[in-house]
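Fold sample X.
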Amino acid sequence: MRRLEISARAVLTVAMAAVSIAGTMVMGSVRLAAQESLGEKARRIRAEKENAQAGQPANGQKQMSPAAADLTATVGLIQETDAAKYQEGVRLLLEQERFRVLEDVAAGERVNKTRFTGGEWKLWWFYNALASPAGKGRGVVPDWNAYREKLNQWVGQMPQSVTARVALAQAELLYGWELRGPGALGTIAQEKFDRFMAEVKQAETILNGASEMAVKCPEWFDVMMQVGRAKGWELQDLNTLLERAAAFEPGYFYVYQQMALTLTPKWRGREGDAEKFAEDAANRVGGRPGDILYWEIAQAIMGNPELGKAPQHFVWSRALIGYQGLVAQYGVSTVRQNQIAFMAARFGDYMTADDFLLQVGDRWDPGTWGTQEYFEKVRTWARGTAGPFKKIIQAYKAVNDNVATPEGQRYDGQIAREFTARYARAVQDCKTAADAPTLLILQVGKTGSVQQMLVVPQTASDACLRPKIEKANFSPPPKPEYWVRVSLK
């Protein structure tokens, strides 16, 4: 992480934390200092001096100044690695109207391009935490007016803050969707639609006011892309906005996700347009970043609950390669494991779905699955379908390990002779079935008894052969629980 020189004043105010986090904090502080007017800076320095000279509590411990408290809060949030706790911290700061701390945090995440494990940008989660008022419990209707007023207060106190304006624009946009309600375009009452478009226009105005500010923000493009889609911009104009966003911050994949959503049949595209966009964008970026981008776009579209089970034509192998590249670069998170398991299930890849669901365990993600009932349904399907096949794979591996030894080769020949002598007629009688197996994998016990019998292919019926063979007794194997194969051809 880039480190900048911290001022002597900051060192004094955060002596207890400076050793471990100075570099991270300074970047945000330097950026904020550039945004302050001389008058604001003078008032802040004077307030800090007055607080530093304040009296001591009765216990003799020195009271932390507001500036030091703000700096400590900023550093603590920047160092937070849990996305849920991070969002809680951001919301709490807004509730407490600690706008300067919010500025510091956003500046630090923006400059350092920090990500959570799994590759999600912390800056995106910062804005996501401020996107709407958090309800206080089930059935409680959020107070949008009071919430938007608080964001307007932030803008009023810091008119040159791109962070405050992007947060406010996003809230206005989501409030518009709240007013509009669900439903296709032709089913919305005109009054609701007019109120929706008024909020969209308000969000656009706020964003335009931030477009010429000295500090730029990649989330500005993300929210503006949503505004453009809601207003029905021409695709050429949206493409131009995407090109600007990619030139400013190539790795901020959320803008690509918004463009892909616009190209779905639900909005402005036709079947296959979003998939082609993902392929073209990934090829243009190239290499591992391109594969990761393909995964991010595919996951966003296939995991969007509003699109339901609309036909999709993403390439599963490339999406999986992208996920593997993502994990290699940013590590694995529980949410990402849920997402890849969900996508594997959508593609019908029960083996991969089962692998990742075993890693997920009971840590299911509501944002991915919607309901626990659906999660359990998919998990049951994957386990029930993949389990027997995996058992065959493991047994066949044991067979190959056994026949790789001289004693294993001898026993393999012995079993072949004994099986042919005793069961050739039974095999011939059972071959009349259309779904008869072509290979048996047997586990032979210590005394030569058959402990398990697996058939290949997995879809074959063993109803005819099993009663004849499951009570068989062969020569004792080299060791107990010994796997052998018997070809029925």
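Fold sample Y, listed below.
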Amino acid sequence: MTIHIKNPDDLSKMRIAGQLAAEVLEMIGPHVQPGVSTGKLDQICHSYIVEEQKAVPAPLNYNGFPKSICTSVNHVICHGIPSDDKILKSGDILNIDITVIKDGFHGDTSKMFCVGEVPDHARRLIRVTQECLYKAIGIVRPGATLGDIGNIIQGHGEAHNYSIVREYCGHGIGRIFHEEPQVLHYGKPNTGTKIIEGMTFTIEPMLNAGTRYTKLSRKDGWTVTTKDRRLSAQWEHTLAVTSDGCEVLTRRPDEEL
């Protein structure tokens, strides 16, 4: 397993890519409304990334993925493909996953959105999943382990009677979209790879309201849903490990991190 440690020049470029990804999530928020298609959201994000940011939408044509963003609605866990036929309705919950490439480096982040009037149980799932991400970020520092990250996410999620998706995880990131290490969202303390300064990776917990079991679409080969079709939520940030903690490269202005 080769983990690419980033130098100051790499990190300055990753900081820019991360902020561009965060800006896309801020920009698209007002467009997430009942009656809008996920295909339209993809179109808006694509134009903004390419024309305004002069960057590249990393998902487009990545291993054959056909769109520029991922839109995962309700029971879709991740990798949902935007479509003009998928019209958002009041009560839906939506994850938008953005990855941009700028000057050869990736910034990767996702956020949950509520469409119209969303039931309290769905809002609770969204909130607890975000808390899992923030709690994990809070323990990232040199000397901690990847098992510590998985453990704190698993502990908090399961304490609220949610299940943790195991088939999909966070990942190293830099010039390569997905590189080592894999960052699992479950695990035991003091196990796994030790975290060191200069590592860059994503943390992106996926919590299900029902069981943890997943189903991959045979039709498109990308869309991952909960097997029991109950709701799922996900939040994601890209981090850089510093000498005494971490920097959240995709932090949005409304977040206190």
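Sample Y note: The helical segments are 8-28, 38-52, 120-138, 146-159.
Also: The chain has a mean pLDDT of 98.
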